[in-house]
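Aim 2, interim progress: modelling of the zinc ion-bound target.
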Amino acid sequence: MLIVCAEQARVEAELLGGLLPCPSCRGMLGPWGHARERVTRRGSGDWRWRPRRARCRGCQGTHVLLADLCLLRRQDEVEVIGVAIEAHVAGEGHRPIAARLGVPAGTVRGWLRRFDQRAEQVRAHFTRFAVAVDPMLGPVLPAGSVVADALEAIAIAGRAWVLRFGPCPVWRIVSRLSAGGLLTCNTSSLATGAW
Ligand SMILES: [Zn+2]
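Predicted structure of the complex, ligand included:
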């Protein structure tokens, strides 16, 4: 699984041009059909799409290219999940957040619980990225709680990304930097975020 830009035409051009590196061996990926259809719930309505599948010209491994609008094993757009996390850190309960976003309360509770459980790992991961991109980064001041510190690290990493690579919404950067694994239990996806 590889997280790529949500713009399908650009991904296509990168695949054909041999510009996408294999996450396993750093060889170059080429087109290899499509994965099965997915439905991603976006703020603007359901988005039905078929992720591109790619094959490495080096190790022959195949990978599904997931748009950076998504997280692994989550049906909702990362931006919607991000809004819920921000509201949660600001002190709002999962029920009002769910009502506002039009998402089942149990789904929102699941995201927030997982974020709470992983907050320290998330903080460490995104701080490492920010420091790697900007070695002059000053000390990151405590934001008052583990989850607030995690969100602060995400914001700092997002700013570092934008300065280096250009504008991109912060939660899409989160998808890329966590290789889609922000809320998965498998910690290795966070450890090996593709950057
Ligand atoms: Zn490979």
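The first strand starts at residue 2 and ends at 4. Residues 105-133 form the longest helix (29 residues).
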